[in-house]
Fold this sequence. Notes:
11 helices
Amino acid sequence: MASRTPNRTERRADTAVVGGGIVGLAHALAAARRGDRVVLFERDDHSVGASIRNFGMIWAIGQQRGAIYERALRSREIWLEIADRTGLWAVPAGSLHLAHHPDEVAVLEEFVATTPAARERGTELLSARETVARSHAAHPDGLLGAMWSPTELNVDPRHAIPAVAAHLADEYGVDVRFGATVRGIDLPTVSTTAGDWRVDRVFVCSGNDFATLYPEVFADSGLVRCKLQMLRTGVQPGGWQLGPMLCGGLTLLHYAAFEKLAAREALDRRMRAELPFHRDNGIHVLLSQTADGRLTIGDSHAYATTHDPFESEEINAAIMDYLAGFARLPDTTVTERWSGFYPSLRDGRTELVTDPEPGVTVVNGVGGAGMTLSFGLAEELVAAR
């Protein structure tokens, strides 16, 4: 599009990023590391979306095998680099997929046998005895074993996201503009409530607000919104620490890493017969911990263009009931409940990346894997543009 004559309020940057969630922060970091002058715009005064409403799990083991798994591992490296530079709480806790049924063991055995990339990084099967030695939170009743993966990293999202934003400003000089809404993009001008900016390139990482800029892109994208429910306990007594992050058999039906395994079909049949409510509501249960010792528990998944704003206590009860089957915790008193919303692609794609006009790249649709994939994805995209 034709450029406009600069006015007095226009400022200059090489790259502008729209969105202050993890996807936007990751693209700002990648551009700044390339040497760009970067400005980031976030309409809210601080991040309040999916990037702070999650487990804080950098969950490589669940990602699609191959290039996406490697992307997750690269993201993990960047998280650790940032933690080393800033003191950000980031614990390489690893994960345990607990198996209390033979069909769950069968899926885990097939996964380990057919995924050399995970084995090379230390993923292995454990006996029941080895599992409870690794995790005092694993419920021993009926436990048959587990899959241990050392690659999963635990951060505290409510603190991590602001810390990354501060790191961008302090370390790389990124102009981070919270409380600034982008009104429109007409390169080289980006019009915002913080004035007009002249830039060479824009990354639009608007997350759940995906219909404001370039709505025609999203109308044809296949994106829908995922609504999830999550819970958090209070600080666990006596400084109790979870150790490895935990999940059960339902998780094997949720993540792409397990989708093409032959043993998964029998597990799915049993789960649908025994836990139809869980399956109908997209429930699988993960357990992580925050820096101050609280436990984060969830979640459910519902997909639609528009969701009602209400939480279901039946869903929350189902989550907690399933958790009790695989985890022993000192105190399960719930102190917080919330809903999260994020854009999701339902056709097997791991992200939506498109260039609606020269110099503008829209990045969205990373689903529930934003914390796990964004740093690696951004590094790839910025290098290619």
